[in-house]
Amino acid sequence: MITYLRRRPSTFHQALKYHGSSTSLRPTIIAGAHDAPHTLDIFLDYVCPFSAKISLAIDSVLKPLVDVGGLYYGKVKVIMRLQVQPWHATSTYTNEAGLAVSCACCSREIWAFSLALFKQQTEFFDGPASNMTALQIREKLASIAAQVITEEQVAVFKDLLKVKPTPNGGIGVTDDLKYTIKFARQNGVHVSPTALWDGLIANQVSSSWGEKEWSEFLAKNVVV
What is the distance between the alpha carbons of residues 63 and 160, in angstroms, rounded to a whole number? Predict the structure, then answer.
């Protein structure tokens, strides 16, 4: 069963200033009603080709099934979880960007940002990114964020990704990134995409699934 960390009150004051709380630590429900009894958690990494592939199925297949008017509306909610895979150098940077969008905006914008970033993910692969500095990577991520969020939100986004003045203090979402990584680790999630159905890893879920497979999965597992 999926377990949740007991977290100290966030020291992330920028998120409190901008959004009233550290929004990136809330479950990012991207489809379905928030009070739906069944939960499908999907762990994604922005520089994973298979995560990009499954994101298309989430958007074109799962969302219509569980959103308003769908067969499983009110029964299933889909939560996107960020999964850092450190063997890809830019995984940390891109997932920090996802957390920054989450803090500056809401679930609708984070999913729009995610789709936009997945479309351009090859620009952040090991080879293309090998000659880019951290600042250049974050500027490129900000340009992608600007496609889907407001100018004011982009300013917040950039502020959250600024390096703190202390020598090794990280950035505005470093604590949130730590929580995200610990959350995945303690629940046995090591690669992306990984899916959890009602808290248990569903190994059968595949990035190659289309409408047929997802429909069969939901028909078998939804019991309400």
Answer: 29
Which residues lie closer than 8 Å to 137 by C-beta, 6 or more apart? 90, 93, 124, 129
What would the pLDDT profile of 96-125 be if each residue is shown by its tens digit?
Answer: 999 999 999 877 799 999 999 999 999 999
Half-sphere exposure of 66 (CA within 13 A, CB side): 31
Longest dimension (CA), the chain: 53
Q: Which two tokens stand for residue 113?
A: 């940002």
Q: How far apart are CA 6 and CA 223, in angstroms?
A: 30
3-class DSSP assignment, residue 128: helix
End-to-end CA distance of the chain: 19
The strand order across the sheet containing 38-44 reads 28-31, 76-82, 38-44, 194-197, 200-201
Indicate the pTM of the whole model. Answer: 0.88
Q: Per-residue pLDDT for 11 more than 80?
A: no
**How far apart (Å, rounded) are the C-alpha atoms in residues 161 and 174?**
9
